[in-house]
Amino acid sequence: MNTLQEPLSETLVLASGDTAKLAVDKLVDSICERFNIGDTYYGNIMVALSEAMTNAIQHGNQNNPAKKITFSYTASPKEIRFSIEDEGPGFDYDHIPDPTAPENLEKLNGRGVFLMRHLAEKVEFEKNGSVVKLEFKTND
User: What is the set of domains in the chain, with CATH numbers?
Assistant: First the structure.
């Protein structure tokens, strides 16, 4: 791996919907290829970002294609940081039901934040939960 690569950063403003998720997937593919990110890290990044984007589109923006998602990242050979912001009012991220609790095992929703917290090195919420920041290391 070339550790002298310059960091990359970019901000995209995307309409809520599947097109936004596809654009983010393609962008992450190119970032991971550029920095030679292995399959384990790549998988963690893709799953966590998919959950964050889905939450922003469905819960934050209520599936309204007129509302925007602001997606930004900073990538370097050692780490990638992502920020996903929706136009919703946010949510109480400190009081999310545990999806591994027996009463929640059969529920179809409620696993996104749990997955993000287990796959990323760091997860932060800002603006009452309408912004999620994810940080991943990209090598050992």
Answer: 17-137 (3.30.565.10)
